[in-house]
What does this fold into?
Amino acid sequence: MTRSRSEKGSRSRSSGSFGMIMNCLCSGEQLSGPDDLIFSDSESLATRDHKSELSSRVAGVTDKSHTNILEAESSLRETGGLNYEEARALLGRCEYRKGNIELALHVFEGIDIAAVTPKIKVTLARAGEHRRRRSQSNDTPPMSVNAVSLLLEAIFLKAKSLQSLGRLEEAARSCKVILDTVESSLPGGLPQSFGADCKLHDIVSQSVELLPELWKFAGCQHEAILSYRRSLLSHWNLATQTIAKIQKEFAVFLLYCGDEASPPNLRFQMDRFTPKSNLEEAILLLMILLRKVSLKRIEWDPSILDHLSFALSVSGNSRALATQFEELLPGFINPEDRFYRLALCYYGAGEDSVALNLLRKLLGNGMDPMCFPALLMASKICGDNRCHAEEGVSFALRSLESADGKCDKLKSTATCLLGISLSAHSKSAVGDSERVTRQTKALEALKTAGQMTVMSDPIILYHLSLEYAEQRNLDAVVDCAKQMLNLEGGSNVKGWLLLTRILSAQRRFVDAETIIDGALDQTGKWDQGELLRTKAKLQLAEGQIKRAIETYTQLLALLQVQKKSLGYGKRSFKSTRRHFDRNLELEMWHDLAHVYINLAQWSDAEICLFKSKAIRTYSATRCHATGVLYEKKGLYKEGVKAFQEALTIDPSHIPSLVSNAVVVNRLGNSEVVVKSFLMNALSLDRMNHSAWYNLGLLYKSQGTLSSLSEAAECFEAAVFLEESAPVEPFR
It folds into this structure.
């Protein structure tokens, strides 16, 4: 009976104290004194150090939220009293919601987190075990689930308060306590219905989202990445939208944080693929998000596709990006945008014909015939291929029509592309007058583009320099090329190479080699390959064969180092670079083969050709070098076979056309056949001095007055072109 009365008295006093607190919270009135608060355990506010402080804090609380009152009442009734930490948590929450951040933080800091954390862990562990077994347990947890929720919320609000005050690392450590506590107590995650009445799921979910952000803005990138991975790989039972939000934020952070993290440990997650870099991990996350969009698990977010486009473009996987656009369900992006982006992807992957076909469909009458970006891109693709140059001119003119109202920069770009297409179209002209007319129009278009940009666009200046050079206006081209180099600050290897070739066309080999040496000093090791090859050709033109071979040896050593560094057997975003280096190595062996052929060192030449064949089995340049080797040995029939094999691989290979004509003529074949080879070569390249010279020899052998006159004209053209020929083609 006595015990029963004692329990009833305790409940009565607790209920009374709760009523006083709630009246105070709701009305803002001050309690009559600290002794009016009755707590049931030894950690209550009855201690001398905290009575007056709590009384003064309670006086200012005016929160009238009915939900807060019910939560506090539930906690009080289950535990039989409001202990010190719970009171601090409740009062701190009130101050935080009122906007008193510093005061709320002061209240939260009074909570002994180290002391309550073990109790929270035990409570969560027992509650989780009880729900799994669905059986009653005689072990009473040290606190209620509502009290756990209240204290975890206090820790979370403390982290938010520290974040508001700019103390980000402290906020992150505070937030991390929540996740460490919950994860160690419930390794399998919170059950869906666990703590639903006290918003425990919301607290954990918000903490999972907040922690990576805190580390990120604190500048602790490694900790941020680990927190993001923990958010996605641990069992938190998060909502689908929350997981998608974290995945997107993590992918964006990986792409742009600028700090390479160690690869994640996903062996227990996936058997086939583990990301090896930030870029691969970001691509994986973004592709997962796109798959969720396709399955309609999350809403469409166009920024996902934008970030994925950037990631796959940087990695060199334009073809994979095209696949993502093709697999995207209709309705997410409009058809015009889909065709244009697909064209960009295929163009980036080197599939120009596929890209051009897509652009033709986009620019057809059924879609968007005047799409300015698509017209520019189509003109650029056609301008790079003389077979489509006429169509490129048409696209460029249409882009100029649709450029009304646009800025001068865009108009100048369209005008420049018109000049490029006209220049390419001039090479397919049948008559000289038609060719000169097209070249004149091309030069005028490029000049106009340069004037529209006040000669400040290095790309326009580069193409203007090329046109000047091909028309052999060498005085104008030097000034133009120098201006281009000044604008680029010497950062573009193409500019250095063009200026060097121009100087070599003026027979200024020493100046050209000086330019190359300066370019080598300002260029990174990986970009020095073409410069070294050009330097070797300059030395050959000067008759310095020994120095040239030494330069080729230096180039070979550089290529070998690059090969080991990039790893030819691995799939990497550096595949384009590897392909370029292989082509450069191939041409280097061909150059050396010609050097040894001229020195009559047949075995060395054959070794170079063998090395070339190991890189690429079918090469028109290698077959031509083989034919030259046979020709020098006097094996003319074998030489003809080699030249014909080269023309089978590449019917437009000009050196093989000229060499084949020479050897066929020596074998006594019809002059008509010889002339057809030479005229075919000149139709492809009017500036080939060797073709003009051999055509002159053919006319001279005929012995008639008219043929001698034509021979003289051919020799005159050959002399002029040879004197102004660069050591390498300008383009």
About this structure: The chain has a mean pLDDT of 83. Residues 146 and 178 are 15 Å apart (CA to CA). The two ends are 107 Å apart (CA to CA).
